[in-house]
Amino acid sequence: MSRFPVKAGPFATAALAIRALAILALAVIVAVAANGAMTADAPLRGQAPQGRPGNVELTTFPAEWTYRPGVPAPRAEHGMVASNCALATEAGVEILKAGGNAVDAAVATGFALAVAYPEAGNIGGGGYAVLRLAGGQTAALDYRETAPAGASRNMFIGADGKPTDASLVGHLASGVAGSVAGLLALLEKHGTLPRARVMAPAIRLARDGFVVDAIFRESVAQNAKLVGRFAGAALFLPGGQPPAIGARFVQADLAQTLERIARDGRDGFYKGPVAAALVGEMSRGGGIITSSDLAGYQPAWRTPITSSYRGHGLIAMPPSSSGGITLVETLNILETWPQAAPWGSAAALHRLTSAFQRAFVDRNEMLGDPAFVKMPLERLASKAYAKELRAGIRDDRASPTSALKPAPRESRETTNYAVVDRWGSAVAITTTINSLYGSGVWVPGGGFFLNNEMDDFAAQPGTANQFGLVQGESNAVAPGKRMLSAMAPTIVLDPKGSVEMLIGGRGGPRIITAVVQAIVNVIDHRMTLADAVGAPRIHHQALPDVLEYEKGGVAADVVTALGAMGYSTKPGGTGSLTAIRRTATGWEGLFDPRKHGLASGY
Ligand code: DON
To answer: Which residue lies with its CA nearest to atom 10 of ligand 1?
Structure first.
């Protein structure tokens, strides 16, 4: 029996119309189901659904994607810390609860990371901090490493004319560490608690030790080859093996170093026995960092980059990191489309990629240490320049990177963490020794690993570094120069100007592309913080001219569509993020499901 029998009379027309609508609805359901979009975890593709306000679409991840949407993030009412290491997060929360502000807690977290997360947390590396203080004041601190005075342009080029691996492994790979000077400068200028109090959790963790868990053991095990080549082997690989799960891991040398810093301030690291231990290790291994390099190290307060994306404010890190400029340039280009394309669609990924390509062409060619390179930063960060770049993007075609020109000149480890306090101050920090366990060199008597940040320079302009970045003269090695970074600790403000989100990550150039996508996911696609970070991501850094996507994260038909537009695509990696976001009653925070960590507060 037909559900809509056509009868003669006044209802016939209505019945016919209802039947037609039912058939149309069925056809739509069949078409959508055939497209895979009716399964719970499939993306909606094509146009934004009609009848929804603004550009809101129902976004779900491809069925093959690793993480399910809808996982809640931990919440806290007053203050929150998110980092890649549970013990370090707890150190920060301890300081918040003791009455410290976000800066006190960030410094405590930073020193604790150096103890309990040695793959990336450090006192032998450097970093960047972006701050927005309770009164609305913003600040940025650059405590990036500098090239030693004895560094030279071709120091990493071998007799065969090719780059060697000395920028990555061993004593020549290290820049002069900035972390201790940076953390102490933050504390002195914007902290409220005494040095000894904020360093107490880190000193405790080093002196009394912590219980080795599976994450710590695995980290050491995976890097045993590198660590085993240098003096850290005795501590980190006792009997040739990584520490056993359940064992207590005590770092006596590091405890002593931290106690010295707590007592003597920066001189406890840059002068005296710790500096002597570092310089001694350099001479043993053929390194070039001298005591005057150490004594002369200075962090730099900089004016943060301020910009906006669709009415939300952005506070980002200026050079010597490329992070802020590159993310702002990308977001400015994306903003030229008044409405975002549906999440996960070929159109959305094409726009993102086209924007990344252009921003990275400028980054790779033009950016470097501001003390050495003149950069058209205002132009790069301007909405007008983004419009010019947008004019060169076709809706239906990829642009080969080789066809893109940088703006004219005018005349693999890292960890991000974020802290907010009950007064509304926010601190976003990314710190690194570059690769996991840096150069592998460990300073006996000092108790810490040294960075291999020298590889972030263009060892040979035009030749790729460990991240595949092909960079130019602006980032060539020079004595005293800071190597260009991609670290991008960023604070997002809501349209009324209050802190809305803190975000940053690890992954070299993949930091920038990951941070941009999380911001876009929150602002354009109205995702929860957990979904915005857990969503699959793409990456493009201009060269190599390849659009990478996380396996299972882009629907097969979208990959095909991108190929048809002229993209060369392949599965690849992304950065990993940590973030905090304001809720109606406080804060939520999280670490990327791709990595480890803890977000916690009170
Ligand atoms: O400063 C930079 O851009 C790099 N040294 C960051 C390295 C990094 O993120 C490694 N982490 N996976």
So the answer is: 413
Please say if 569 is a catalytic residue: no
Q: Of all protein residues, whose CA lies closest to atom 2 belonging to ligand 1? A: 485
Q: Which amino acid is at 246?
A: G
Question: What pLDDT is recorded for position 58?
Answer: 60
> Cβ(145) to ligand 1 under 6 A?
no
Quote the ligand 1 centre to 63 CA distance (angstroms).
31
Q: Which residues are CB-contacts of 349 (< 8 A; sequence separation ≥ 6)?
A: 538, 547, 549, 554, 558, 562
Do residues 174 and 125 lie in contact, with contact meaning Cβ atoms separated by under 8 Å? Answer: no
Are the C-beta atoms of 146 and 482 separated by less than 8 Å? yes
Measured from the CB, is residue 506 less than 6 Å from ligand 1? yes
Give the model confidence (pLDDT) of 157-188 as tens digits: 999 999 999 999 999 999 999 999 999 999 99
CA dist., res. 329 & res. 290, Å (int): 38
CA of 365 to the centre of ligand 1 (A): 18
Q: What is the mean pLDDT of residues 551-577?
A: 97
- For 569, the 3-state DSSP assignment is strand
Residue with tokens 């030229």: 336
Question: Does the CB atom of residue 432 touch ligand 1 within 6 A?
Answer: yes
Active-site residue, from 414, 513, 528, 574: 414
Point out the ligand 1 atom lying closest to the alpha carbon of residue 455.
Answer: 5
- CA 118 to centroid of ligand 1, rounded, Å: 15
Q: What is the dihedral of CA 97, 120, 371, 380, to 10 degrees?
A: -90
How far apart, in Å, are the Cα atoms of 173 and each of 126, 147, 225, 351, 546? 14, 10, 17, 37, 28
Cα–Cα nearest to 191, from 108, 68, 315, 250: 108
- Edge-to-edge strand list for the sheet holding 312-316: 75-76, 587-591, 576-582, 499-506, 490-493, 312-316, 305-309
pLDDT in tens, 406-449: 987 654 579 999 999 999 999 999 999 999 999 999 999 999 99
**What single letter denotes the amino acid at residue 13?**
T
Farthest CA pair distance, the chain: 102
| pLDDT digits 0-9 by tens, 479-501 | 999 999 999 999 999 999 999 99
User: From CA 258, how far away is CA 180, in angstroms rounded?
Assistant: 10
Q: Is the CB of 588 under 6 A from ligand 1?
A: no
Is 584 exposed, middle or buried (CB count within 10 Å of its CB: 0-12, 13-18, 19+)?
A: exposed
- DSSP conformation letters of 102-171: HHHHHHHHHHHHHHH-TTT--SSSEEEEEEE-TTS-EEEEEE--B--TT--TTTTB-TTSSB-GGGTSSG
| Spatial distance between the Cα atoms of 373 and 251, rounded to a whole number of angstroms | 41
354 lines ligand 1 (CB under 6 A): no
